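Fill in residues.
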């Protein structure tokens, strides 16, 4: 099982949108974990319509798991499963809904993040299939849950091909690089073109693991639930994400020996970006 985390600098580059779109086309069971300490956007955004009709409960997720396991010495996937909900437009995806208010991250606490990390790393679907964890960590800062970053197979920093976003990503990458080895640290370039992606890679001297095409219409499905949250299957965004999902999934699932982790450099999109 793989754990893929996305974190960002300032400026809302598109981290949540990218993770939701990746999960929607992931070629295997996936657990979409909304772990943004500032408050989650996945349930009220992409899945807002199912919050309104009561299919998804906003209060069941990250916080309810932390509260229910507060006396546990370790996390476990079976308990985590009680806080994961089905995602109606993508049945292979489970949702760990995020915090509904920023101050709630204090109630999760460092031990709560650690228990969650253990549960995510060994999570299985109700039919016993291992699920890959796709984790939204929001904007990097003092409240960032480091247990998840340290356990992840890869930490991807989301950035757009603009000077503002590149400058915002630089200090984040520098801090992450103090504790995360280069082969586990890469970039997601959001709302980009091939030329934009090349510029970001050159400016930040990091491997680009995922290139997300500029596609405002389809992106608004995943960020804001337009079109009722229905998957924009033929959109440029989902076409690009299908390729990225297959590549990421293949990278981690072809590394069978325990302890072997694929370097971010093996996730590169195509020769032109290297
Ligand atoms: N590939 C894309 N093409 C065009 N627009 C995009 C793309 N990805 C995201 N957007 C748009 O950018 C805005 C911000 O997206 P999103 O909420 O995913 O960013 P974020 O990085 O998660 O922000 P935050 O830091 O607030 O959590 C949204 O309006 C979304 O529709
Ligand atoms: Mg977000």
């Amino acid at each position: 099982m793989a754990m893929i985390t996305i974190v960002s600098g300032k400026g809302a580059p598109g981290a949540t949108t990218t993770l939701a779109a990746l999960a929607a086309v992931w070629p295997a069971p996936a657990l979409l974990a909304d772990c943004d300490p500032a408050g989650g956007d996945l349930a009220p955004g992409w899945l807002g319509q199912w919050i309104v009709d009561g299919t998804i409960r906003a209060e069941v997720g990250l916080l309810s798991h932390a509260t229910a396991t507060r006396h546990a010495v370790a996390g476990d996937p079976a308990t985590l499963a009680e806080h994961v909900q089905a995602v109606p437009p993508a049945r292979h995806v489970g949702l760990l809904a995020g915090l509904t208010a920023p101050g709630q991250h204090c109630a999760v606490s460092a031990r709560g993040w650690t228990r969650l990390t253990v549960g995510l790393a060994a999570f299985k679907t109700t039919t016993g299939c291992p699920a890959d964890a796709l984790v939204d960590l929001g904007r990097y800062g003092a409240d960032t849950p480091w247990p998840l970053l340290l356990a992840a197979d890869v930490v991807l920093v989301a950035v757009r091909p603009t000077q503002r976003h590149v400058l915002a990503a630089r200090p984040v990458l520098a801090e992450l690089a103090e504790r995360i080895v280069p082969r586990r640290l890469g970039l997601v370039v959001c709302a980009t073109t091939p030329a934009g992606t090349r510029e970001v890679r050159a400016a930040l001297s990091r491997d680009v693991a995922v290139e997300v095409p500029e596609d405002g219409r389809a992106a608004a499905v995943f960020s804001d639930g337009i079109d009722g949250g229905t998957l924009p299957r033929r959109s440029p965004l989902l076409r690009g994400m299908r390729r990225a999902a297959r590549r990421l999934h293949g990278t981690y699932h072809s590394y069978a020996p325990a302890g072997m982790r694929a370097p971010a450099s093996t996730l590169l999109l195509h020769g032109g970006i290297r």
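Residues 255-274 have pLDDT under 50 and may be disordered.
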